[in-house]
Design goal:
The chain contains 15 helices and 23 strands. The protein folds into three domains: 6-241, Ribonuclease Z/Hydroxyacylglutathione hydrolase-like (Metallo-beta-lactamase, Chain A), CATH 3.60.15.10; 254-348, Rhodanese-like domain (Oxidized Rhodanese, domain 1), CATH 3.40.250; 361-445, Rhodanese-like domain (Oxidized Rhodanese, domain 1, 3-Layer(aba) Sandwich). Helices cover 29% and strands 21% of the residues. It is globular and about 70 Å long. Helix 3 (151-168) crosses helix 5. With 453 residues, it is of the alpha/beta class. Strand 20 (369-371), helix 12 (375-379) and strand 21 form a beta-alpha-beta unit.
């Protein structure tokens, strides 16, 4: 038969890939699709496909699955691990089970490690393996983290991951590999542009496969684990129960200034999604700045406990639908609405506004800077003497930060603005942001960055 079309659908913000497989008769298999189905549906329309099967490799921690939505709207059959004990209708699969896709076959392989109930899916045309969907087992140049089920399970799952990877390596070297997690994912995917790979390439180049034995693999994998958003610990259970099916296209209700103030008084959190200069020039006191971009969902989930009611402040022309879908795909359904008229309306009503100065490189003493990037980014080059406190840890450490003023920076400026808003909420009154990243500072000042071994 003709080559089977497999279409990756990449979420750059979360660093994940879903896949559409053209089954040759106008139907498609969808693998690891998120609750935000806009890109998946657009890809299906481009290729004239209707999703008939929706397979999940595991109980996702970083996004809500869209499989149940596809079942409700399109009648797709959900395929998932029997060991996941999902609380909704689906076809339960165990190791070796096969699903007839109408000419092609999908075979489940138990590949525990990233999660205990993890499955990989082999796509077969007769006896020929067309590819394998590895989810959170074998990644491009890595393997997914094993510490999302609690510290007591981290090492046992790492040992399971070792066995699962070596099972996958028994396939022919030319076998295409389609992982879910890629660059940008906090599930331990390394940086890089490639989203797919082959068994042979991973045998040759994956450093975790080059270690000598199981113990060495476990040591290397556990040493590579960085921090992750706390919502990762909540979503697997939500995916097991099944996300609510959305009956209509979601929208944000318009809110008056008085309604916003009342919601704040009742514990609601204002999320300011405007660009950094707009937020810095004037914002609602106590708001959290998360500029709208591809990584919006990650920082929303990292810094705001669910189910806090969320009030959105957006600027002219910003896509509120993007705010909504990024929140919904990680389970933040409690969207109270959006301020009508932006900050001019707020100030015209007599409510106070706060501002944060944006500094130039020449105005900054490097030793006074808090660099809020991830520790690996910081180690690769930072201002001499700058402290590193990851943005995700800043809320818990804000009370211990001393010094006036506090200057925060990151790689571009968005995380620094978020950090400034976190510090402002914690009571700091002398805060400034250094836009840009360390290379920009070095270019502007002619000074050398410091590298941590």
């Amino acid at each position: 038969m003709a080559a089977t079309l497999i279409v990756p659908v990449v979420d750059e913000g979360l660093g994940n890939s879903a896949y559409l497989v053209d089954l040759g008769d106008g139907r498609a298999l969808a693998v690891d699709v998120p609750r935000d189905l806009r890109a998946v549906r657009a890809a299906a329309r481009r290729h004239g496909l209707t999703v008939a099967f929706a397979a999940d490799t595991h109980l996702h921690a970083d996004f809500l699955s869209g499989a149940l939505q596809l079942a409700g709207e399109d009648g797709a059959q959900i395929l998932a691990s029997a060991a996941g004990c999902r609380a909704f209708g689906h076809r339960s699969l165990a190791d070796g089970d096969e699903v007839d896709l109408g000419g092609l076959t999908l075979r489940a392989w138990a590949t525990p490690g990233h999660t205990a109930e993890h499955l990989a899916y082999l796509l077969l045309d007769g006896r020929q393996v067309l590819g394998v969907f590895t989810g959170g087992s074998l990644l491009v140049g890595a393997a997914a983290r094993t510490d999302l089920s609690g510290p007591e399970e981290t090492e046992p799952l790492a040992r399971s991951q070792y066995a699962s990877l070596h099972r996958l390596l028994t396939m022919p070297e030319a076998t295409p590999v389609y992982p879910t997690h890629g660059a940008g994912s906090f599930c331990s995917a390394p940086p890089g542009a490639d989203r797919t790979t082959t068994i042979g390439r991973e045998k040759a180049a994956n450093p975790l496969l080059a270690v000598g034995d199981e113990d060495a693999f476990v040591k290397a994998l556990l040493a590579s684990l960085g921090t992750f958003p706390p919502y990762f610990l909540r979503l697997p259970e939500e995916n097991r129960r099944g996300p609510a099916i959305l009956a209509t296209a979601p929208a944000l209700a318009p809110l008056t200034t008085g309604q916003v103030r009342a919601l704040q008084d009742e514990g609601g959190q204002v999320i300011d999604v405007r660009p950094v200069p707009d937020y810095a020039a004037g914002h609602i006191p106590g708001s959290l700045a998360i500029p709208l971009r591809e990584a919006f969902a990650t920082w929303l989930g990292w810094l705001i406990p669910d189910p806090t009611p969320l009030i959105i402040v957006a600027g002219p022309g910003q896509a509120l639908s993007e705010v909504i879908w990024q929140a919904l795909k990680i389970g933040y359904d409690n969207l109270a609405g959006t301020l009508t008229g932006d900050m001019p309306t707020w100030q015209a009503a007599g409510y106070p506004a706060a501002a944060i100065p944006l500094l130039t490189p020449g105005q900054v003493e490097p030793a006074a800077v808090i660099d809020v990037r991830q520790s690996g980014e910081y180690a690769g080059g930072h201002l001499p003497g700058a402290r590193n406190i990851e943005l995700g840890a800043l809320t818990s450490q804000a009370a211990n930060i001393k010094g006036r003023p506090v200057v925060v920076m990151c790689g571009h400026g968005e995380r620094a603005a978020t950090a400034a808003s976190v510090l402002e909420r914690a009571g700091h009154t002398a805060i400034a942001v250094l836009p840009g990243g360390p290379p920009d500072w070095a270019d502007a000042t002619g000074r050398t960055l410091q590298v941590t071994a």
